[in-house]
Amino acid sequence: MLKKLLSLALVATVCPALAAGEADIRKAMEERLGTKVESVTRAGYLGLYEVYADGNIFYTDDKVSAIMIGGQLIDGRDMKNITEERMRKLTAIRFNDLPLNQAIKQVRGDGRRVMATFEDPNCGYCKRLARELQMLDNVTVYVFLYPILSEDSVRKSKQIWCAPDRAKAWTDWMVEGKAPAGRDDCDTSAVTRNRDYGRRLNISGTPTIFFADGERVPGAVPIARIEQKLSQIK
Questions:
Q1: How far apart are CA 12 and CA 65, in angstroms?
Q2: Domain annotation for the chain: domains and CATH numbers
Q3: Model pTM score
Q4: DSSP assigned state of 21
Q5: Is residue 6's pLDDT more than 60?
Q6: How many Cα atoms are found within 13 Å in the side-chain-facing hemisphere of 41?
Q7: What is the C-alpha radius of gyration for the chain, rounded to an integer number of angstroms?
Q8: Torsion from C-alpha of 74, 79, 85, 87, nearest 10 degrees
């Protein structure tokens, strides 16, 4: 039901309810959306409440008489995107909780700065990101093979994971365009576990980047922004 709502409208009106507190709003929203609500907090604008459910932010009033679906809340004073800022906080993780043993580890320079990416080998934006990441120095990049686009993505991921030098096989394909041609019948359970783990994190697109402070950034962001972020993290 939630996916149907998201695809149908930006703003959906519903029948009024007598919600007076956050617990009541949670219950009413779960009934309307048909999914578990993770959190309900005051948005701080227009008397709205922020409702976080299924990886999405919704807004509603204290009576759940209207629900804003897919909209962005902007602070009119400084034009700051409040929804985007809150999404960064709500989707953040503990970097040390990532199963790094299931990732391809690439170290450049002293490797003191760290980041992780979830990528599909057939994703064009992932290839662009892989090329740009070659410009970074003193960084360790953990690449989680996350084949979600096609069966060929699964096959390539398994071939790369089975390669004697996984980092080289990944770079050869993503940067140089040299397709992996080795075996794909080694223990590739890490690829399956990555997909299961990514689903639990609501990763629906590639690339998705995680920084050491836990911030999640979807998409192939400019290398200057990545460099700036890495430099800010102590």
A1: 10
A2: 2-90 (no CATH), 95-232 (3.40.30.10)
A3: 0.77
A4: S
A5: no
A6: 10
A7: 21
A8: 30
